[in-house]
Amino acid sequence: MKKNVQRQISEVLYSSELKALGKNDPFPKPDNWKLSPKRVVDFVMGTTLDDGTEIRPKYIGKRSLIELAVATLTTDRALLLTGVPGTAKTWVSEHLAAAISGNSRLLIQGTAGTHEEKLLYGWNYPILLSRGPVREALVPSPVMRGMEGGGIVRIEELTRMPFEIQDALITILSERRLPIPELNEESNALSGFNVIATANDRDKGIHEMSSALKRRFNTVVLPLPDSIEEELRIVTERISPRYKREWKEMIDAEHLREIKKVITIFKELREGQTTDKKIALKKVSSTLSTAEIIGVVDNALSMAIHFNEGELTPEHLASGLQGAIVKDKDSDEVPWREYVEVVMKKREEFNEYYNHLKKETKD
Ligand SMILES: Nc1ncnc2c1ncn2[C@@H]1O[C@H](COP(=O)(O)OP(=O)(O)OP(=O)(O)O)[C@@H](O)[C@H]1O
Ligand SMILES: [Mg+2]
User: Fold this and answer.
1) Residue 62 and residue 66: Cα distance in Å, rounded?
2) CB of 156 closer than 8 Å to CB of 114
3) From ligand 1's centre to the CA of 121, what distance in Å?
């Protein structure tokens, strides 16, 4: 079952970790939770259990943020994860749902075209036409299934949904029940039901949440990494399991230093100044998130493995930079060129990057 699937869901991929955490969990568990809040945080942040089982860190950052998120889910408030794109909101939401409910698939993807029936319930029309509005004709949404099963429901990109659709959640979150007027009945939420929504605050086309809805959520803001070291940990934690043996064979301290250079480039452009704070830089419009750095390193590794006998070079890393940084030609090209000429050119350790980028523009 594990074979050939491109991307396994968290509860399948980490099933042995979840089992080990369950076995080593003497702490109090809220109703219908698979693990205690403490063990849920351990699953997300990583730990070593008393029996020696290694739990890999999934989120790299402040433990207190994840504790706050998990604590919220034990209350009657829902959890809203916000922050700029690529700060692991979706990633954290999936792992939390997997650890708490053992199911991360009760998911609604918010879009401008999301209808109320996606959020509440719809109808199976052949049954509806032949038998009228009966329970068997009702098609429950993931929210309704989460309520009836006492599980965590994930709503991705909540603020992409139109305002009036978002507000359909207010009754569910405050009353913890969903009226079904067509059947003259209602669906009640069991313990364990709660909602994790994600929303990024940078994208175009988002709809502000009403203050009534906002009050039903506790907001946790996931930040960009604090330091280059922390960002390097994220990149290695995310990429090394994918390459397993190759990573061990290919990557030594020298390569990690190269990857750090790439992170430095992103960090300086993101912050609009060099790390020594001596040169102010024009900012690019894109977010330059860690996810982009992961993409650059991933590509570089793939090129090295398939086209250079496993030898990763600065050129491999440099070749993904332009595409990752210049997202909008009009607003990003000038700051990027300026960075290359003003900062990179003058740093000896960036020589290979500079030469490669110059060659790329000539070709
Ligand atoms: N602090 C972090 N710890 C672990 N992984 C991280 C961290 N920050 C970013 N990532 C990685 O970055 C990638 C992007 O994360 P994700 O898709 O969850 O971002 P997002 O915040 O949902 O972005 P968007 O707003 O674009 O939907 C994931 O592979 C995730 O593992
Ligand atoms: Mg996301």
Assistant:
1) 7
2) no
3) 30
Q: How far is the CA of 277 from the centre of ligand 2 (A)?
A: 31
Distance from Cα 89 to the centre of ligand 2, integer Å: 5
Q: What is the pTM (predicted TM-score) of this model?
A: 0.93
Q: State which of 221, 287, 290 you would mutate to test the pocket of ligand 1, scoring each by most atoms of that ligand within 8 A of its C-beta.
A: 290
Residues written for the chain: 363
Per-residue pLDDT of the chain (363 residues; tens, 9 = 90+): 556 788 889 999 999 999 999 999 999 999 999 999 999 999 999 999 999 999 999 999 999 999 999 999 999 999 999 998 899 999 999 999 999 999 999 999 999 888 888 899 999 999 999 999 999 999 999 999 999 999 999 999 999 999 889 999 999 999 999 999 999 999 999 999 999 999 987 776 678 889 999 999 999 999 999 999 999 999 999 998 888 788 888 888 889 999 999 999 999 999 999 999 999 999 888 888 999 999 999 999 999 999 999 889 999 999 999 899 998 888 899 999 999 999 999 999 999 999 999 887 776
Contact 55, 48 (CB under 8 A): yes
Closest CA to 119 of 89, 88, 70, 162: 162
